[in-house]
Amino acid sequence: MRTLNRNTAGILMKQPVKVLQFGEGNFLRGFVDWIIDVLNEKTDFNGSVHIVQPLEFGIVHMLEQQEGLYHVLLNGIQGGKETQVTRLISCVEGATNPYKNYSAYLALGENPALEFVISNTTEAGIAFDDADKDFTTIPSSFPGKLTALLYRRYQHFNGAADKGLNIIPCELIEKNGEALKAAVLQYASYWQLPEAFAAWIEEHNTFCNTLVDRIVPGFPKDNINEIQAELGYEDNLVVKAEPFHLWVIEAPAKVQAAFPTAKAGLEVKFVEDLTPYRTRKVRILNGAHTALVPVAYLEGLRTVREAVEDPKAGKFIREAIFEEIIPTLDLSAEELEQFANDVIERFQNPFIRHELISIALNSISKYKVRVLPSVLEYYNRQGTLPERLLTSLAALILFYKGKYNGETIPLNDTPEVLSFFEKVWQSENAAEVTHAVLANTDFWGTDLTRIEGLEPFVAQQLELLQKAENIEISS
């Protein structure tokens, strides 16, 4: 089997480095780098990526061994049909471990062709750390490293206005661009850097809020030997992902012009406000996951795909999405329904085994964030109760009993939540249990017993579940 490198793959030409990427993990390589690779093929973007390893230990050495090359395998369902597409990613030009060579890392900021910084350093990655006293040695935090690099760039180009960068974080926190900018400015102040540098950050660098969406299971270790045999290469960085992709970016027109994804037919949306798209994702995709879990699990199903394809659970979640969640959202009906249909196809992906019990982690807080807003908005707009979403709540309450149909349920939540349910379920009275749960303002941020009709409906559904050990879904 051939070693994977640019010589064996016949890819010798390199484009100028336009993108500095903090993070070498599966998501960025299976999402962002895949997008940039398509962009190079279908437009005149003509740019490559240099990857920075944000933590001391990572896989930069593996990228170097393969000269930045690796394959992305897109497996899933599109248009009702199974699809499998393999792409050799060639846009990664090089990689740097700043912990081994900090000066080489800072020198990356002197590249005149550089236009973008993209990152995914986990949700905890965008944070200020006062232990980073200055930039003469490598800062521990990602914002600290970025500030040091930006300062080197500022110095090297004498604060030139046209050498500012478009900074596009992909960390899964709300207003990630604004949070990163605030941390960078905090370091500039903490390190007592010139006020002119802070002004350059403010005036000539663009920090974009973003929303990313693609399931990237990562390295397919279970059948990697078969995959490598099919590829004909010993690729140790294969990334498996679903075909669906969506990247929503709040940015001015100049960023869109510099990153012409529309010309490549990519699902990258440049918008003035991504809030509706975040709400859509949280309520339809994440909300459907959370609403489905207790209903399907108590029915004896164990994966998302099984649940969606089950006649009863599948009907339940489709009706919950189309009849109770979508009516609470403000984007166009066509756009919402298309996204919902894409979600159902993603749930049915035969190449991804998504365990319901893994989604059940911290289900109480997830229900509060992902489902409860749909319940409350539906009630406000329609004046009636969303019965499927509340049936899910009843199922969730029983799920947290920890036992059903003679089987122990492996609950995974905070000690406070588990302790509460252990005490509540000392009673077998559905009405008592329901009242205690709905009145717990620590769970929901409000007293749900005050919503007319909600408590008796949930109690009734819970009682039916207890008696029949079967879910009665209102039609």
Give keywords.
16 strands, N-(1-d-carboxylethyl)-l-norvaline Dehydrogenase, domain 2, alpha/beta, 6-stranded parallel beta sheet, disordered C terminus, 2 domains, about 475 residues, Rossmann fold
Outline the structure in words.
With 475 residues, the protein is of the alpha/beta class. 47% of the residues lie in helices and 14% in strands. α10 links the parallel β13 and β14 (268-271). The radius of gyration is 25 Å and the shape is globular.
Share of residues in strands = 5-15%
CATH architecture of the largest domain: 3-Layer(aba) Sandwich
Return the CATH class of the largest domain. Alpha Beta
Specify the structural class.
Answer: alpha/beta
Query: How helical, in percent, are the residues?
Result: 40-55%
Count every helix, treating DSSP H or I runs of 4 or more residues as helices.
21
CATH superfamily of the largest domain: NAD(P)-binding Rossmann-like Domain
| Gyration radius, rounded | 25 Å
Taking the alpha carbons of the first and last residues, their distance comes to 57 Å
- Total DSSP E strands: 16
What's the assembly state of these chains?
A: single chain
Largest sheet: 6 strands, parallel
Order of neighbouring strands in the sheet with most strands: 6-3-2-7-8-9
CATH topology of the largest domain: Rossmann fold
Q: What count of domains describes the coordinates?
A: 2
Question: Please, what is the average pLDDT?
Answer: 95
User: Uncertain regions: pLDDT < 50 for 5+ in a row?
Assistant: 470-475
The shape, in one word, is globular
Secondary-structure map with pairings?
Elements: E1 2-3, H1 6-9, E2 17-22, H2 26-30, H3 32-42, E3 48-52, H4 60-65, E4 70-78, E5 81-89, E6 92-96, H5 102-107, E7 116-119, H6 142-156, E8 166-169, H7 176-190, H8 195-204, E9 206-207, E10 210-213, H9 224-231, E11 233-234, E12 239-241, E13 246-250, H10 253-258, E14 268-271, H11 275-298, H12 304-309, H13 311-325, H14 333-347, H15 356-359, H16 363-382, H17 387-399, E15 403-404, E16 407-408, H18 415-424, H19 430-438, H20 441-444, H21 454-468
Helix pairs in contact: 6-7, 7-8, 11-13, 11-16, 11-17, 16-17, 17-21, 19-21
